[in-house]
User: Which sequence fits this backbone?
């Protein structure tokens, strides 16, 4: 059974940093692209970032480019999101998602339960 | 950026009736489109990928069609568990983008 467990969320002041992690199990992690998607309270889904299976194709939403960095450690079956210069508008539930295929052009076929990031002074 | 629009914003349907949801892309995305269902308080669930392929375990009453810029999700006979918000997402162009969602509620 595929399991994705996010961690690292919490309350952080504007301008500070946070690193999210996603521990994956139940599938061959290094065969699939991985994704981060967020959802602000009461709002819709917003794609944040995607990393291909070999980390050779990475993309970011315009709203986070230059501030967030996605990475993966295939040996640890883990996905990360380094978030710098956080803003109030980054407040959201952050979901980790498994790609349907290895390439970055991929739908998300499994989702974690999310980790909440709150940016506030 | 490919802008995804969905209509209607809210669809009120009686159980057993058909629901038709629309998704439009601002430029051609081929068939690189997915549909997701989100029940309040839960993570999204993949329903359809590649515009028309049902994901594992998704009932046959969910049907996706379309290519290019116009896509449709049809739920042939709504069950109680189908009342939710439905999102489309394109994964053809960077940045990937979601539509704003269609809420399907009970009439």
Assistant:
């Amino acid at each position: 059974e595929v399991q994705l467990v996010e961690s690292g969320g919490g309350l952080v002041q504007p301008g500070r940093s946070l690193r999210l992690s996603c521990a994956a199990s139940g599938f061959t992690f290094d065969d699939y692209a991985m994704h981060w998607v967020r959802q602000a309270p009461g709002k819709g889904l917003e794609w944040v970032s995607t990393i291909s299976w070999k980390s050779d194709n990475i993309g970011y939403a315009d709203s986070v480019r230059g501030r967030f960095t996605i990475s993966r450690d295939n040996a640890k079956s883990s996905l990360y999101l380094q978030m710098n210069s956080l803003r109030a508008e980054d407040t959201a539930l952050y979901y980790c998602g498994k790609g349907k295929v290895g390439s970055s052009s991929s739908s998300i076929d499994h989702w974690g339960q999310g980790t909440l990031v709150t940016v506030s002074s | 950026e490919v802008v995804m629009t969905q209509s209607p914003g809210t669809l009120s349907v009686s159980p057993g009736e058909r629901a038709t949801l629309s998704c439009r892309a601002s430029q051609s995305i081929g068939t690189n489109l997915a549909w997701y269902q989100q029940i309040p308080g839960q993570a999204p669930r993949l329903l359809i990928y590649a515009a028309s392929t049902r994901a594992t375990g998704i009932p046959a009453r969910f049907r996706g069609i379309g290519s290019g810029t116009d896509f449709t999700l049809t739920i042939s006979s709504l069950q109680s568990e189908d009342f939710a918000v439905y999102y489309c997402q394109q994964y053809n162009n960077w940045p990937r983008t979601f539509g704003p969602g269609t809420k399907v509620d009970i009439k």
User: Anything to note?
Assistant: Chain A has no helices and eleven strands. The interface with chain B takes residues 37, 44-47, 50, 59-62, 95, 100, 105-114 of chain A (CB under 8 Å). The mean pLDDT of chain A is 97. The first strand of chain A starts at residue 3 and ends at 7.
